[in-house]
Amino acid sequence: MKYKRNFVKDLLKSSKVDLDINVKGWVRTKRGNKQVAFVALNDGSTINNIQIVIDVANFNEELIRDITTGASLSVNGKLVKSMGKGQNIEILANEVEIYGTADPETYPLQKKGHTLEFLREIAHLRFRTNTFGAIFRIRHAMSFAIHKYFNDRNFYYLHTPIVTGSDAEGAGEMFRVTNLDMMNPPKTDEGKIDYSKDFFGKETNLTVSGQLEGELGATALSNIYTFGPTFRAENSNTPRHLAEFWMIEPEMAFYDIHDNMDLAEDFLKFLISYALENCKDDIEFLNKMYDKELIERLNFIVENKFERISYTEAIEVLEKAGQKFEFPVKWGYDLQSEHERYLVEKHYKKPVMVTDYPAIIKAFYMKQNDDGKTVRALDVLFPRIGEIIGGSQREEIYDKLKGKINEMGIPEEEMWWYLETRKFGTVPHSGFGLGFERFILFVTGMSNIRDVIPFPRTPKNAEF
Ligand code: ATP
Ligand code: MN
Fold first, then answer.
1. Closest residue (by CA) to atom 21 of ligand 1?
2. Nearest atom, ligand 1, residue 449 CA
3. Ligand 2 center to residue 29 CA distance, Å?
């Protein structure tokens, strides 16, 4: 009889016992006495471990000694009902093979209770903790749910470029892509760097957003979404900013700002419901260990309608707040994180969607309102996070868009392809960008964005 490898997750759910099976994984703990050893084995398929019962007399001493926290094992044995407390089933080991030992003197993950800061320094091993196992299983489930949500609703996944030649959006915040010799770059007659000699024959950067290209797709496929990495060279050392983060950007033809809001709300609620249903053990663990209100907060989001207000209303609420803010509250100034959190956490006590921001603080492509002052921007603000989504209805009128591009000093000849979508068969359309890590912060209850992406990229840090 051959022992078939099973995942711990499936074994713990199994109702059949007295089966010969194989499991592989890493030792979390070993305890016991001279007669019997109990090993808690984890293979990453679930936060829960399976108990391996080893009858010491049947194995050589050295092997038993080498089964220490962190060692990797393959176990052939019988799945049986457990006599002990704390688990329903366990495995009586027949054969144990050690793939790799982990020296107790030097393996850093001996006992529980390491700080998140310390675990960031050993990001290559932190996957092996309960916390990071839970976080990255949830991150996976949310990626899957995002694709499912859009696939089920006639949205097409569009791969927009990562290297881009347009710097219309993020002037100053972009990472340059070049293969010029940095010590000796070609120069123009005026002594500037001659990018016509560069790989692409022009200046290129890492993308800050797939939106502009997404719009090109939406004006033919109707509904598209992107889900890819974006890069911002902003020097913001905050718990909510990364230099490399993932963004989901749906773009929908024939959607106005209200359709856009409906989609954003439905999408976020779908994802949170999906997490509550499919990531139960992991969310319960995080609720217990990090954030006692996590599950309550997630349920609250699913069950309540988001508040919808205009920027002008938001300013009025903030002016009446009777609270001292660090940054000024004034019509025409952008909302800062402290303002966003006041609106969400203190005033409305639920997620808030703010629309119709002053044109001067928003991007050139947003649809201009008739008042001549505001644009159809949409920000979705979440408790603990602040801005989680930024979006808008897009300007679809050729002359207005062209006027704005000129007004803002964006070189028109670089935007010719974008403008042409407004020249030929233009349609009203809308979209938004959800910052994936900001969303994972919310779903996991973690408080630093460095803990919800496997390998964070932040100013002065690109280790691993
Ligand atoms: P913020 O004001 O918080 O810096 P932003 O206005 O620059 O955000 P957008 O350009 O609208 O953000 O980007 C869309 C979404 O991407 C944001 O709502 C947020 O969820 C996410 N996001 C933006 N910048 C970052 C970053 N540096 N790291 C992680 N997520 C980010
Ligand atoms: Mn920003």
1. 435
2. 29
3. 43
From the CA of 232, the nearest ligand is 1
Strand 223-231 to 352-358 pairing: unpaired
Cα 438 to ligand 1 centre (Å): 8
Q: How far apart are CA 155 and CA 276, in angstroms?
A: 24
- Strands in 364-454 per DSSP E: 374-382, 386-393, 429-435
CA of 435 from ligand 1 middle (Å) equals: 6
Q: Round the CA-based radius of gyration of the chain to a whole number and report it.
A: 27
* Residue 334, pLDDT above cutoff 60: yes
Residue nearest atom 16 in ligand 1 by C-alpha distance: 435
Whether ligand 1 lies within 6 angstroms of the CB of 232 is answered as: yes
* pLDDT single digits (tens) 42-67: 999 999 999 999 999 999 999 999 99
Q: Which pLDDT value is given to residue 84?
A: 79
Ligand 1 pocket test, candidate residues 230, 245, 387, most atoms within 8 A of CB: 387
Is residue 378 within 8 A of residue 260, CB to CB? The reply is yes
Q: In angstroms, what CA-CA distances link 208 with 202, 228, 229, 244, 250?
A: 18, 10, 9, 9, 15
Decide if 335 contacts 354 (C-beta within 8 A). Answer: yes
Query: Could you tell me which of 268, 344, 272 has the C-alpha nearest to residue 309?
Result: 344
Q: What is the pTM of this model?
A: 0.96
Ligand 1: residue whose CA is nearest its atom 29: 241
Q: Kindly state the tokens that stand for 317.
A: 């609420």
Which ligand approaches the C-alpha of residue 363 most closely? 1
Ligand nearest to the CA of 380: 1
Tokens of 1: 């009889």
**Residue 181 identity (one-letter amino acid):** D
Looking at every residue in the chain, the average pLDDT score rounds to: 95
With b meaning 16 or more CB within 10 Å and e meaning fewer, what string describes 381-402? bbbbbbbbbbbbbbbbeeeebb
Looking up tokens 């959190």 gives 341
